[in-house]
Design a protein that fits this description.
The complex is a heterodimer of chains A (about 375) and B (about 550).
Chain A: H1 2-32, H2 34-39, H3 41-49, E1 58-63, H4 67-81, E2 84-88, H5 93-98, E3 107-110, H6 113-121, E4 147-160, E5 188-191, H7 196-209, H8 211-224, E6 227-229, H9 232-240, E7 246-250, H10 251-259, E8 266-270, E9 282-289, H11 296-306, H12 309-316, E10 322-323, H13 356-370
Parallel strand pairs in A: 1-2, 1-3, 5-6, 5-7
Antiparallel strand pairs in A: 3-9, 4-7, 4-8, 4-9, 4-10
Chain B: H1 2-17, H2 26-38, H3 46-71, H4 75-117, H5 123-129, H6 138-149, H7 154-160, H8 163-169, H9 179-204, H10 207-215, H11 220-249, H12 252-256, H13 262-271, H14 275-302, H15 324-355, H16 361-394, H17 398-407, H18 409-412, H19 415-429, H20 437-460, H21 465-473, H22 478-507, H23 510-515, H24 523-532, H25 536-550, H26 554-560
Helix pairs in contact in B: 1-2, 3-14, 3-16, 3-17, 3-19, 4-9, 4-11, 4-14, 6-9, 6-15, 9-11, 10-11, 11-14, 13-14, 15-25, 16-17, 16-20, 16-22, 19-20, 20-22, 21-22, 24-25
Classes of the chains: A alpha/beta (about 375), B mainly alpha (about 550).
Chain lengths: ~375, ~550
């Protein structure tokens, strides 16, 4: 009995040690990193050389963008530079706020420039004179370059051409006040109010209409919508499959649905394009440098790498968004190419995209009051 | 408890001081006597007691912290939530919990009765086949149902392509994203709790009572209602509690089917970083849970059923007769819907996924992450459970009861609340461990330690205290007894508990989602993300692996009931 016991105890201990050792390694990387990175990544490299030869430190990226668009970009960064990327997908900008005293992230990637603007306003992002930042138009970056946009998108309706014609479709966001759109075949779909794209859109409406009318709009829309989903991907798939006649999405979701092998008979309405209308609501996706991040040297390297033209193209990647620097030649699949509408050809709402950050907090409060943040259908 | 620990320190001082000082104050004697009385003259060593108290503190601090935070959420927020959100959430949560519990109890009891008491063909096999839905995590089940019955699912395609269906019934009528969808999925994957407990007590039921009833001229159905059912009441109660607690705590299946209960609302509030509102909702949910537990404790005290064991005779097997085809149809139907259908969907998509190269390096790194964090949780649980169960079985007293109850706090409450507490505590007070996988493993310990405790306790209760005393009398100190005498004898139970914790941890979704550090996704998290993006060929292999791993402790579970 004694011997078997000893053997078992030894096994448990050994297992525990293996775990501790395995985890301990990771732990060292996580916590020991900040100190050397202040000195510079060169020394950093020498210090960690003994453990893992290829390791050139790491970088923590929080991303609010869909994982499928971002992961390939991050993998390419690791392949190009040898810096390991620890990614937290589906992150919320407010996590950076919560961790203000215990900063974990180095870079925040967002599909809502309003979120980045808000973080900057709270003093959580840090300006830096990046190499190559001049390639981004001044409208699309913060004054101190703490955050910037790479790709742009506009909001509109994706619709199923088998169920509804272009003529029958609503052409203005205001038309959704009319309850008749609940009665089209399958109704229409919107995302939950917690969705980044929806927050940006509602900020734009508040800028245009004021809070009262916007609140009313939210109420009517959440009352009449046939489906309220967590993300836009659900909407494009559902509209493509004929579950709903149309849905409120960003234009690149329309592009994505066109590439699907089936259920791709869809069209898109750029909203409010008439002379007396507000113009299409635009938003942009980009990245920001988090203040006092644990691996700041690497973070700056990442952002400068990201600003290289080929990587700006890569940032768009599978998302099929519009590159702000359209001359960098983002290539689109043959199915999508004819449907690309250049940003300059659209009537865009006159709210500066950078303004979005100032609206972020109050917009969220408005959405919470309406209850749309928790609604799912 | 505070008082007691003070007593303890005084006692220790007293002991130390004894050497030099003969006449210690009377008050110390008084406390010392009280202290001994409360342990019935047999207090545990201070090291052991301290260890137990530390474990209990770790188990309960996160929840206390959440409650504490909710009290400082501000009157405005409380008012706003009480006016608008809470009534709606209460209705959503209550109606779902009630409907699922009621229906699962009916299915579980009828299945148990048919399998145990009738001449159903192949009843030996059905006995464990019908418990199989336990191995399918409900969020995985929900995915498979969305694939089959969803608005773009297989059934809809068949429906659309069958003209007479469309002509007579109109368009595809099923909407899985509704109350009924959630209700159906949760019922199908939770009924085994009642089924297992009910079949165990049916098997133990004494035949004499039924024969008396029959001799009084009762029919089979009358006997079922008047004799069998009352005897089953404790079993039904226990199963119903398990199910309603599960429905209260489930996040994955409910979120995937676009329904919002308290747990989902807390998760979304937290995801939107409105932590104050999240803690307010948590407090309400805690009260709900405690309420259910209280009802259970009350009914259990009120109703006592005695069976005489000295004249026990095996219950006889009833002939189904003309009901046979219906019974077979029912059993096969439930089995098909809750096991065959989900598993075949998973196998179908896994097959596609594997051929498309889903089992790549990423997949194995996720699997390794799952293994690492669940394994660590299992080892920690096995180690931490030992002092607690030893205290509880060998030194029964008020203090040990409190310690024991505190350890159940995280187990009874939903994972989102535990995770919420962890985020508060680690981010603000233990930044070194914040956003590391240790935090996730610790959360699993808080969630699942009682599983290890129950398993170990069952083994330890079979070891007589005389064995300890014999070892003591031969000169072993208590810690040596623990390792040399007790541990070897109860090791199988402890290991079984560890296996249970491992499997529960690997399936756990909401706490993992909320606490995972950057770059540390587990299989459960991947299933959730891939499925919500409708990338089923990547979700299915991971889900299938989770199901296969869950089969490991099934044998133990079946034996237990």
């Amino acid at each position: 009995m004694n011997k078997t016991l000893k053997a078992i105890l030894f096994a448990i201990l050994a297992l525990g040690l293996v775990f501790a050792a395995g985890c301990g390694n990771n732990e060292d990387e996580n916590t020991a990193e900040p100190d050397p990175s202040e000195v510079g990544s060169g020394q950093d490299e020498q210090q960690t050389d003994e453990e893992v030869v290829e390791l050139d430190g790491e970088i923590v990226v929080y991303s609010a963008r869909n994982e499928r668009f971002v992961q390939a970009l991050l993998d390419k960064f690791t392949a190009d530079t040898g810096i390991e990327v620890q990614a937290l997908h589906d992150a919320n900008p407010l996590q950076v706020v919560e961790e203000a005293n215990n900063v974990r992230a180095d870079v925040f990637i967002s599909n809502d420039l309003g979120a980045l603007g808000y973080l900057h306003m709270e003093g959580l992002l840090q300006g830096y004179d990046f190499d190559g930042i001049d390639s981004i138009p001044a409208d699309f970056r913060a004054d101190d370059n703490a955050y910037f946009a790479i790709s742009a998108r506009s909001r509109g309706f994706i619709y199923n051409k088998d169920m509804i014609t272009e003529d029958e479709m609503p052409k203005s966001i205001e038309e959704l006040f009319d309850p008749k759109w609940a009665d089209v075949e399958g109704g229409y779909a919107i995302t939950r109010g917690g969705n980044g794209g929806m927050i940006g859109h509602i900020s734009a409406l508040r800028y245009e209409w004021g809070d009262e009318k916007t609140a009313e709009w939210i109420e009517v829309v959440s009352e009449n919508a046939a489906a309220i989903t967590q993300g836009h991907g659900d909407i494009r798939r559902a509209v493509g499959a004929g579950e709903h006649s149309f849905g409120l999405v960003n234009n690149y979701y329309f592009h994505q649905q066109l590439v699907e092998p089936d259920n791709n008979n869809v069209g898109f309405i750029y909203l409010d394009q008439e002379a007396d209308q507000m113009g299409v609501v635009a938003n942009a996706a980009g990245a920001g440098l988090v203040k006092d991040g644990p691996n700041q040297e690497n973070a700056i390297a990442f952002i400068e790498w990201l600003l290289l033209p080929e990587n700006q193209v890569m940032f768009v990647g599978e998302s099929l968004e519009l590159l702000i620097n359209s001359d960098y030649g983002a290539s689109y699949p043959a199915e999508v190419e004819p449907h690309i509408v250049d940003f300059n050809d659209l009537k865009v709402q006159d709210m500066p995209i950078k303004e979005l950050g100032n609206y972020f907090q109050d917009t969220r409060a408005l959405i919470e009051q309406s209850g749309l943040d928790l609604e799912l259908r | 408890m505070k008082n007691d620990s003070k007593n303890k320190s005084q006692l220790n001082n007293n002991q130390n001081a004894k050497v030099g000082e003969k006449n210690s104050p009377t008050i110390l004697h008084f406390f010392r006597k009280k202290w001994f009385d409360s342990w019935q003259g047999n207090p545990p060593g201070s090291g052991l007691l301290l260890l137990g108290m530390i474990v209990a503190a770790i188990m309960s601090i996160p929840i206390i912290y959440v409650v504490w935070r909710s009290l400082f959420a501000g009157v405005d927020r409380w008012k706003r939530l009480l006016d608008g959100r809470i009534p709606e959430l209460l209705w959503n949560t209550f109606s779902l919990t009630f409907a699922v519990t009621a229906c699962a109890v009916i299915i579980g009891v009828t299945l148990a009765w048919i399998v145990v008491r009738t001449d159903l063909p192949g009843r030996k096999y059905w006995q464990w086949l019908l418990a199989l839905p336990l191995v399918i995590p409900p969020y995985v089940g929900a995915v498979t149902y969305i694939i089959v019955f969803g608005p773009s699912g297989w059934v809809r395609n068949i429906w659309r392509d069958t003209p007479w269906l469309v002509d007579t019934f109109g368009n595809y009528p099923l909407n899985i994203y509704s109350f009924w969808g959630v209700f159906f999925v949760l019922t199908m994957f939770t009924y085994p709790y009642v089924y297992l407990i009910a079949s165990a007590s049916l098997r133990k039921m004494n035949r004499n009572f039924e024969e008396v009833a029959r001799s009084q001229g009762m029919t089979t159905s009358q006997i079922f209602w008047k004799v069998n059912l009352p005897f089953l009441r404790p079993a039904i109660g226990a199963g119903a509690i398990l199910i309603s607690l599960y429905v209260l705590s489930d996040f994955g299946a409910i979120a995937m089917l676009r329904y919002v209960t308290f747990t989902a609302a807390i998760y979304f509030q937290r995801a939107g970083f409105d932590t104050a509102s999240a803690s307010v909702l948590s407090l309400v949910l805690i009260i709900l849970t405690v309420g259910i537990l209280w009802i259970e404790a009350r009914t259990r005290k009120k109703n006592k059923y005695y069976q005489t064991s000295n004249t026990f005779r095996e219950p006889d097997i009833l002939k189904l007769g003309k009901w046979k085809p219906w019974a077979i149809l029912y059993v096969v139907g439930v089995f098909f819907v809750s096991v065959v259908l989900p598993i075949s969907v998973l196998v179908y998509w896994s097959n596609i996924g594997i051929r498309m190269g889903a089992l790549d390096e990423r997949f194995f790194s996720f699997a390794w992450n799952s293994l690492k964090v669940s394994g660590l949780a299992a080892i920690l649980c096995m180690l931490l459970a030992l002092p607690i169960i030893y205290l509880k079985t060998r030194y029964p007293s008020t203090i040990t009861t409190i310690i024991d109850k505190l350890c159940y706090a995280g187990y009874a409450l939903p994972g989102v609340i535990v995770a919420l507490g962890f985020v508060f505590i680690f981010n603000n007070h233990i930044p070194a461990l914040y956003s590391t996988f240790y935090m996730v493993a610790l959360a699993f310990v808080v969630r699942f330690l009682p599983q290890a405790m129950q398993a170990g306790e069952a083994s330890l209760s079979l070891v007589s205290p005389r064995i300890d005393e014999a070892a003591r009398s031969l000169g072993y100190p208590p810690w040596k007894i623990m390792f040399k005498v007790i541990l070897p004898t109860i090791l199988p139970g402890v290991l079984a508990g560890g296996a249970l914790v491992f499997v529960s941890s690997i399936k756990e979704l909401p706490a993992t989602l909320m606490l995972r550090p950057p770059g540390f996704d587990t299989l459960a998290v991947r299933v959730y993300f891939e499925a919500s993006e409708a990338i089923y060929h990547l979700a299915a292999p991971a889900a299938l692996l989770l199901v296969i791993v869950s089969i490991i402790p099934l044998r133990y579970l079946l034996k237990k009931y």
